[in-house]
Amino acid sequence: MTDNPHILVVEDDRDIGQLVARYLTTNGCRVSLARDAREMDKVLAASRLDLVVLDVMLPGEDGLSICRRLRARGNLPIIIASARGEEVDRVVGLEVGADDYVPKPYGARELLARIRAVLRRAGEAPLRTVGGNTVHRFRGWRLDAGERSLTSPTGARVTLTPAEFDLLVVFCERPGLVLSRDQLLDLTRGRHAGPFDRSVDILVSRLRRKLGEQDDANFIRTIRSGGYAFTAEIEP
């Protein structure tokens, strides 16, 4: 995480945007503001960003559509902020690629804590194994924790969000162990975990798709009333 991360706040309410910008600036962030997708695209074209805080209810292209578009372009961390705080909205936010979801109204301190947590996951090396190994190989796949990269058996780079990457590292470091949802949240997000129950399930579903799984028996097995277990053998 950089000392002065550049945060883009996409918020159509000018007063809210300015309040958030002032608080984040006071706490060491550089902040750009955009009121819709068009303004956001201009900032993206002109600046290097570290994270986007994205409102859902925007004029024109809505936040979920923007999130999906940004995720298709790369791994820029995204926090969705919305007054639509129902669980289904939170789940949809995760499904389209958000790294976290904060319901409005939110406190500025909470938003800052979530920003810092997401940036840590995006920028820090993940948890190390006892032996200090940072490269994990399984069934032709190669996960490099140092480079934060995943390579398929065909040699293609597979794009993972920071949350997806950290979850896969946790699985690779604990092959065969049954890990509950709470344990997975603690290991990947710590005390800044989001308040939605299905976040781990959504991340597992996304990992399975990216690993090319056709069912839950290939790499990540669902344990009834238990959680999940990574069943692939980690190669030396």
Automatic annotation (TrEMBL):
UniProt modified residues of type 4-aspartylphosphate: D55
Q: Which UniProt keywords apply?
A: Activator, Cytoplasm, DNA-binding, Phosphoprotein, Transcription, Transcription regulation, Two-component regulatory system
What InterPro entries does the entry give?
Answer: CheY-like_superfamily, OmpR/PhoB-type_DNA-bd, Sig_transdc_resp-reg_C-effctor, Sig_transdc_resp-reg_receiver, WalR-like, WH-like_DNA-bd_sf
SUPFAM superfamilies named among the record's database cross-references: C-terminal effector domain of the bipartite response regulators, CheY-like
Keyword GTP-binding annotated: no
Q: Which parts of the sequence belong to the OmpR/PhoB-type domain?
A: 133-232
A single GO molecular-function term is: transcription cis-regulatory region binding
Q: Which residues bind DNA?
A: 133-232
Its BP terms in the Gene Ontology are:
regulation of DNA-templated transcription
Q: Where in the cell is it found?
A: Cytoplasm
SMART domains assigned to the protein according to its UniProt record, in alphabetical order: REC, Trans_reg_C
Positions of the Response regulatory domain: 6-119
The reply on keyword Transcription is: yes
PANTHER family found in the cross-reference section:
DNA-BINDING DUAL TRANSCRIPTIONAL REGULATOR OMPR, REGULATOR OF RPOS
Give the protein name, as stated in the record: Regulatory protein VirG
Give the organism the record lists: Oharaeibacter diazotrophicus
